[in-house]
Amino acid sequence: MVELVKNNSGKEIEAFLDYGKALVDSALSSLFLEPWAGRFGRLSESMRYSLLAGGKRIRPILSMAALSSVGHDPEPYIPLLLPLELIHTYSLIHDDLPAMDNDDLRRGKPTNHVVFGDATAILAGDALLTYAFTILSDPRYDELSSEKVRLAVVRELSHGSGLAGMVGGQMLDMESEGRRISLEDLEFLHRHKTGALILSSVRIGALLGEAGASEFNSLDQYGESVGVAFQIADDLLDVEGDAATLGKAAQKDNNHLKNTYPALLGIDGAKKMAKEKLEAALDAVSGLGEKADHLRGIARYIIERRN
Amino acid sequence: MVELVKNNSGKEIEAFLDYGKALVDSALSSLFLEPWAGRFGRLSESMRYSLLAGGKRIRPILSMAALSSVGHDPEPYIPLLLPLELIHTYSLIHDDLPAMDNDDLRRGKPTNHVVFGDATAILAGDALLTYAFTILSDPRYDELSSEKVRLAVVRELSHGSGLAGMVGGQMLDMESEGRRISLEDLEFLHRHKTGALILSSVRIGALLGEAGASEFNSLDQYGESVGVAFQIADDLLDVEGDAATLGKAAQKDNNHLKNTYPALLGIDGAKKMAKEKLEAALDAVSGLGEKADHLRGIARYIIERRN
Fold first, then answer.
1. B45 exposed, middle or buried (CB, 10 Å; 0-12, 13-18, 19+)?
2. Smallest CA–CA distance from A153 into chain B, residue
3. Distance to chain B for A22, nearest Cα, Å
4. ipTM (interface predicted TM)
5. Per-domain residue ranges of chain B
6. Could you tell me the CA-to-CA distances from B87 to A83, B31, B158 in Å, in that order?
7. What DSSP string runs through B243-303?
8. Which residue of A has its CA nearest to B159?
9. pLDDT for position A305
10. Are residues A44 and B163, on separate chains, in Cβ contact within 8 Å?
């Protein structure tokens, strides 16, 4: 694996991000190519289309950094981190549907339902979501991670992505469209819609790394802060970005009168809040020493990223 | 629990079915009422609407009968069988969507998307599917069933309901609409679309009951045969039934030029095949003695049911 960095410059975290993305992309690209999947050709093709459409793979990379922070080489755990990308990808497919956000473009490519039709897109999302749990329960990982730990990961992932997590947040987002909500409600919404799966990513790294109670608590607080920071940064990018950089229509959120941090706090207020969350994230892992440098670098990257 | 029956008359299996349904209904009705669920009011309401819209609860009841057949009182295991109904219910919600089968009526009631809108119906399905795994990984069941066993149940459920199971079968069904397929392809389709989750129900009972290898094998064969029989019976009901009995438009399958057993084999041919599958199911569990009487009764009931 990449050496744990001492001087966590931007370049070094970028090397870790590239390293993580390459590992995750490679592992994802081997999914659904088995002979049995051929009988379900169009469905598995549709799943692979969205799964391999790019993306920063920030969720599994956060788990990797959490594993590093508790003294584990993350590389062997990559297969058990793919479920995070499967869940993230299914949520994008379903979100983009005409019945939901009705987006035709994602990362510069036609969305799943545009290519495969709405019905296949719904089923592809369902199958990706379901397969996340097939991976976690695969006996081939019995030696890598105990059944007890992987069942805890099942719990964390299903909680972070379900009714009281990501899906619940998506529902609140939908319900709040067209009306202005309070900052408190906005935070609740985003702590679920985006923050919950980000937090789960960090916690899953901690679970797989069998972190002690104190380490787990630090990582938990880090994940909470980074989850909020991620959404604020996303909102800011949407305001400041342009279609060319993002591969989707910029300022879409504002056109639809969506609730965002810049809309409620102003651009400067949102930037200030993002910085506070970054500080909180860095504080949370201050006791973990150099091993947490990847976590620190990712937190900074999330606030400062330009796409 | 209901006494294991010696003379497995229709009345006695009906008592077991009623008993199982009452237990499952009662356990389902307590879901998503916790205070936290209140913050996601409309989504949890939508989930409960479809979850409590009736149904025979045949999947968890099959698990109960499998548990009985290996000498376990099924009642304590009811919470761990609810995931089967959550998965079955989500699949109905997504199937009924305008982008899929576009059904307005299910069990005599307006379908989920008719009441709550398409977007909420998609999210309610996603959340039900996800929550199935939250239940299985809940530490409150650590004493009832080991992490090892419950992780095996996660695997069985995700496999039976995913790409190589139910969702894959739904995709094949959709792709075969409007063209005649071979009996071999029809069997492959239905072994996945309906059969896989029926088989998983039986296997989950066997897993929870920690069946020995020989018992497991018998139950596996039983589940395979009953899964096919269930679909043939469903097809026959659709041909012979009427809208009043079924609460949905009868003969809909034929109008859409769907592939069914009666369409390929004729009504008499389909009835003959259903009887052969019943015999195979009964044969499979012939070595399990009286403990398997519920399984026998359910197999007969499935072939002979009128709705």
1. middle
2. B137
3. 26
4. 0.93
5. 10-304
6. 19, 14, 9
7. HHHHSS-TTHHHHTT---HHHHHHHHHHHHHHHHHHHHHHHHTGGGGGGGHHHHHHHHHHH
8. A134
9. 74
10. yes
Note the pLDDT of residue A307.
57
Amino acid (1-letter code) at residue B301: Y
From the list A37, A130, A136, the residue facing B161 with the nearest CB is A130
Instruction: Tell me the residue length of chain A.
Output: 307
Binding-face residues of B in 148-177 toward A, CB within 8 A: 148, 150-152, 154-155, 157-159, 161-164, 167-168, 170-172, 174-175
Of B43, B129, B151, the CB nearest to A129: B129
Alpha helices in chain A (DSSP H): 10-29, 41-51, 58-69, 78-96, 112-116, 118-136, 147-161, 166-176, 183-193, 195-208, 213-240, 243-246, 252-255, 261-284, 293-304
Q: Which residue has the higher pLDDT, B307 or B132?
A: B132
Closest approach of B81 to chain A, Cα-based (Å) = 17
- Asked if B126 lies within 8 A of A94 by C-beta distance, the reply is yes
Residues of B in contact with A117 (CB under 8 A): 99
What's the half-sphere exposure (Cβ side, CA atoms, 13 Å) at A253? 21
**Å from A171 to nearest chain B CA?**
7
| Among B128, B134, B161, the residue to mutate for chain A (most A Cβ within 10 A) | B134
Measure Cα distances from B281 to B5, B226, B270 in Å.
Answer: 18, 6, 16
Contacts of A168 in chain B (CB under 8 A): 39-40, 43, 127
Q: Is B194 within 8 Å of B226 (Cβ atoms)?
A: no
How far B130 CA lies from chain A's nearest CA (Å)? 6
Q: In B, residues 209-268, which contact A (CB 8 Å cutoff)?
A: none
Q: Does A116 touch chain B (CB under 8 A)?
A: no
Residue B110's H or E segment, with its range, is strand B109-110
Locus of tokens 């906005």:
A186
Average pLDDT (B217-244) is 88
Q: Which residue has the tokens 């009887």?
A: B275
Q: Which CATH number fits domain B10-304: 1.10.600.10, 3.30.70.1050, 3.30.420.40, 3.50.50.60?
A: 1.10.600.10
Q: What percent of chain B has pLDDT over 70?
A: 91
For residue A98, the SS3 value is coil
Asked if the Cβ–Cβ distance from B163 to A120 is below 8 Å, we say no
| pLDDT tens digit at each of 307 positions of chain A | 334 334 445 778 999 999 999 999 999 999 999 888 888 889 999 999 999 999 999 999 999 999 999 999 999 999 999 999 999 999 999 999 999 999 999 989 999 999 999 999 999 999 999 999 999 999 999 999 999 999 999 999 999 999 999 999 999 999 998 888 999 999 999 999 999 999 999 999 999 999 999 999 999 999 999 999 999 999 999 887 644 455 555 455 555 567 889 999 999 999 999 999 999 999 999 999 999 999 999 999 998 876 5
Question: Cβ distance A24 to A60 under 8 Å?
Answer: yes
Pull the structure tokens for residue A286.
């201050």
Nearby residues of B26 by Cβ (< 8 Å), 6 or more positions away: none
Token duo for residue A148: 């007890």
Contact partners, residue A60, CB within 8 Å, separation at least 6: A20, A24, A78, A81, A82, A84, A85, A201
